[in-house]
Amino acid sequence: TKKMYSQIDSNKRKTAILIALFTVLVLFIGWTFSVYTKTGYSGVIIAAIFSVVMTLIGYYRGDKIALATSGARHIAREKNPYLYRIVENLSITAGIPHPQIYIIQDPAINAFATGRDPQHASIAVTSGAIQSLKNEELEGVIAHELSHIKNYDIRLMTVVLVLVGLIALLSDWFIRIRFYGNRDRNSRSHGQAGGILILIGIIFLVLAPIIGKIIQLAISRKREFSADASGSLLTRYPEGLANALE
To answer: Among 88, 145, 224, 246, which one carries the catalytic annotation?
Structure first.
């Protein structure tokens, strides 16, 4: 239990550090753009606005976007009392608020949790998982997802993905402006600065998705193992989740 709470605190700190680091990186890209185009602080201001807006969207609306894109449909207790009861019982055991429950009409066996904290969380389960998994297996899967909610894993991953995407977006934008915007072709200093800007932009543009995936995998691998362990503690039946994963 002590280790679990330390992991929750660690995830909260990582979220704050990631936001700070990515914000500095975005502002640096904006500053570089401003120096090259001689537009003063407009590039920094635009980058800062993008950074703030995208972070806020990811933080407050990332769960809605994820649910909408997956075709998830919200259900009440009377629509599926079996699933509702499992989520409710495990939420009480985990000591977290009851999340909103969604069903995805998909024969594949899958589930995911989303939301910025336990008070604003949702869990989505495919119809295939409900129909194909035994009771103990479905409990194991849901306990795993509830552990992600309790450990603040979903907040951390949402922030990582949004900010990495923001870097790729700004890099692409600045490269397009460099190629198609007005520039002084006769200025050697402009040419050098432009070359540097293009190089930086291309590096970020090419590496941002790769770096994002590496960060995602590095974080999620450890968090997945932790959620497996936490979920097994909730159900007191590790074989349920193991059989579901098989």
So the answer is: 145
